[in-house]
Design a protein that fits this description.
The mean pLDDT is about 80. By secondary structure, this protein is mostly helical. It is built from three helices and no strands. It has a domain of about 40 residues.
Amino acid sequence: MSTLILQVPDDNLISKVKQACKMFLGVRSVKIQRPAKAKEDNITKTVVYREARRDVKHGHVYHADSVDDILANTWRAHIQRAQQQPCIASTTPIISRMT
């Protein structure tokens, strides 16, 4: 048994095309298949969304009013971290040549 696929862009013509196909000799059945509606992606079911909500819950979110504000706070945090870490001094002497 062979299958014939027709794509009809106008929904009003589908019933007439179906009736015309049934009139052909040897046609057993005529079925109409409509395209499935596109599913909307639900962002709340993604891993990234859950991680973002967890960050908000734990207070790991920062709001800045400008790029300068972001850079100032980034450098401030970087300097604070550097001050908290002990400075490791080198024990090898520095030899300088005098010419």
